[in-house]
Amino acid sequence: MFTQDFKAQPYWWDRSAPPTEQTTELPKKVDVLIIGAGYTGLHAAIQTARGSRHTLVIDAEHAGWGCSTRNGGQVSNSIKPSFSELEKTHGKDMAFAIHKEGEHSLKFTGDFIREENLDCSYAEVGCFHAAHNSAQYDKLARALDYQVPGLEHDAYMIPRSEQHFELGTDTYFGGAIFPQHASVDPAAYHKGLMGKARDAGASIISCCAAENINRDKSGFSVKTSKGTVQADKVIIATNGYTGSLTPRLQRRVIPIGSYVIATEPVAKELMDKLMPKDRIVSDTRKVVYYYRPSPDRSRIIFGGRVSLRESNPRFSAPKLHQSLTQIFPELEHTKISHSWMGFVAFTFDSLMHVGAEDGLHYAMGYCGSGVGMAGYLGMRMGQQVLGLEQGQTPFNDIKFQTRPLYTGKPWFLAPSLMYYRFMDSLNI
Ligand SMILES: Cc1cc2nc3c(=O)[nH]c(=O)nc-3n(C[C@H](O)[C@H](O)[C@H](O)COP(=O)(O)OP(=O)(O)OC[C@H]3O[C@@H](n4cnc5c(N)ncnc54)[C@H](O)[C@@H]3O)c2cc1C
Fold it and tell me: How many domains does the chain have?
């Protein structure tokens, strides 16, 4: 099952090793303090530092330790609810604005990586969104037929009879292609962002947990594990790791474990057969699987949500391997070289949120699709801190909901997940 050199850590860390702690001393005072050094925090930092604000980014672990170096590297437009669902709850104009932001986030990410010359294997390979039964295929086709004026897209359907040109499996009933979606090496992207933030003058300090935030006359006084720092503005960029530091935000995000494995290298001929177009893949199941080839096409990176409590990647790996081989039986004897997990942040309305509460700025709640959106909203939040009008996004105007009795520990997830698995097993 496991290779001899198996690692219980992200495959991406082989190419981009986590930064080792630098002995940067905590400054006494900064203009902007950013808590969380993932895509959200670093893109905010790039804006504020380029805007000549003295910027400090801190992370409780090493910079990038959160989702931003653990994800599947699938870059999509990130909006989960459909246009019609959003229209019902928020009206037509807001539904339009939200979906437009999804498009903007995807374009922003590709443009930023290209313009800033980030070496992170970004490729517009397109997404194959696979239907796990024929009803889901029909549903996908109907959704693509309805093109909202101004949100037209070039997605198209692939019937089951042509599926093998996209993906070497009979498991699915065809699916939809979204040509603009992309793949990236997430840790290499993160490493590039750290370089850009530092080049702009920001400091990044790892292993420095924010423990307490106090408002005072001149702004904020933030106690950290390395001392206290004064800041005019504070940005919270903690997403799925949002904790008791910001209880109000903690009550609004639902941390859910997401799990990934990497296979050992497979033969080129086999990869050509299984993933002939190097697409990123997701499916229509409620408990979704997402997978793709590694940037060098040697391995398959396969992710999904398999458990709520499991934190040992050695336990989650066999379950993912079993799911992988249901899709690709050819991989039955292919071993697992890496297995890891991380916490994504879901929200009660399945949307991401940006705002300022009690003077603290935040962006979070990417619902498992933050590779593009986290950076985009981090950038917008940085602009907001600079007082720039273009920083405003529709996500500023949407109420960030919580539920009575919810304090940040999702006790209700176990029954929901069981229900979703059951529905998937019924194949509906
Ligand atoms: C396994 C997995 C697979 C995923 N796959 C995809 C995918 O393919 N496509 C996609 O679009 N999205 C994916 N995502 C989601 C995506 O990675 C995230 O939405 C995105 O990285 C969030 O970035 P962030 O900067 O907001 O948060 P993170 O990168 O999680 O950073 C938050 C940081 O805050 C720090 N922190 C928390 N509390 C404190 C504190 N008190 N003091 C200091 N620091 C603190 C944490 O240590 C952490 O490093 C995946 C996530 C996971 C876990």
Answer: 1
Task: For 248-302, write each residue's pLDDT tens digit.
Answer: 999 999 998 899 999 999 999 999 999 999 999 999 987 789 999 999 999 999 9
Atom 35 of ligand 1: nearest residue by CA position = 36
Cβ neighbourhood burial of 165 (10 Å; 0-12, 13-18, 19+): exposed
Q: Is 219 in the pocket of ligand 1 (CB under 6 A)?
A: no
Q: How many residues are recorded in the chain?
A: 428
CATH number at residue 76: 3.50.50.60
Kindly state the tokens that stand for 427: 């194949």
Looking at the DSSP bridge assignments, the partners of residue 213 are 222
Q: How many CB atoms lie within 10 A of CB 399?
A: 10
Residue 366 CB–ligand 1 contact under 6 Å: yes
Sequence-distant (6+) residues with CB within 8 A of 3 are: 264, 335, 336, 337
Question: Crossing angle for the helix pair 39-50 and 373-385, nearest 10 degrees?
Answer: 30
**Does residue 226 lie in a domain region?**
yes
The angle formed by the CA atoms of residues 320, 307 and 404, to the nearest 5 degrees, is 150
- Amino acid in the structure at residue 186: P
Q: Is residue 426 part of a domain?
A: no
Q: Read off the pTM.
A: 0.96
User: Domain range spanning residue 25?
Assistant: 2-415
Q: Which amino acid is at 111?
A: D
71 Cα–ligand 1 center, Å = 8
Residue 366 lies in a domain: yes
In angstroms, what is the span from residue 67 Cα to ligand 1's centroid? Answer: 3
Residue 423 lies in a domain: no
